[in-house]
Amino acid sequence: MTQPTPARRLDEFKPDARFAWCVTGSGHMLEESIALARRLPGVDLFLSAAGEEVLPLYGWTLAKLREHFKVLRDNSASSVPVGMLYSGDYHTVVIAPATSNTVAKCAFGISDTLPTNLYAQAGKQCVPGIVFACDTAPSVITHAPKEWVEVRPRAIEFENVERLARFAHTTVARSLDDLQAALDQRLSELKLAWNTSSS
């Protein structure tokens, strides 16, 4: 069996390399995920078409997002912005929150959205990825735009999460605490720190 290629060294990224934070079509822990993204140093947002539809339902219009981030949208068939990974512009790819659809695509090598394309190309470039999977417990209470609802993931969702967790250069977060811990770890590796203010 072929051994996985080591992760890229820090000196292979540009000195001002950033986090590529992808938002998919899930509202689960969406606001909390955006809050974490705002606390990181140097983040660009990459939106799937579904993510762009869902964000305004939680109060995040494109105009509001652009007050805090550079925003890249899923409006090219070939996911042109992915090319910035090749030149060392991004040291980490984060998908948070990740729908079960996105997790399944990543787990089976399908890259037909901006987030899944970024994840696939990050893997091929040995760039670390962090995926905050939404469907990781038998019962999930999640905040829909107008109410709290219970979601009961199926066995296939759990299987896809476990499959993805076995990928090289990938950390799967199964809770918001896991996501923060994975980001803590990555910041430590990068010798960076959380922003003290998210304004």
From TrEMBL:
<dbReference type="InterPro" id="IPR036551">
    <property type="entry name" value="Flavin_trans-like"/>
</dbReference>
<protein>
    <submittedName>
        <fullName>Flavoprotein</fullName>
    </submittedName>
</protein>
<feature type="domain" description="Flavoprotein">
    <location>
        <begin position="18"/>
        <end position="164"/>
    </location>
</feature>
<dbReference type="Pfam" id="PF02441">
    <property type="entry name" value="Flavoprotein"/>
</dbReference>
<dbReference type="InterPro" id="IPR003382">
    <property type="entry name" value="Flavoprotein"/>
</dbReference>
<dbReference type="GO" id="GO:0003824">
    <property type="term" value="F:catalytic activity"/>
</dbReference>
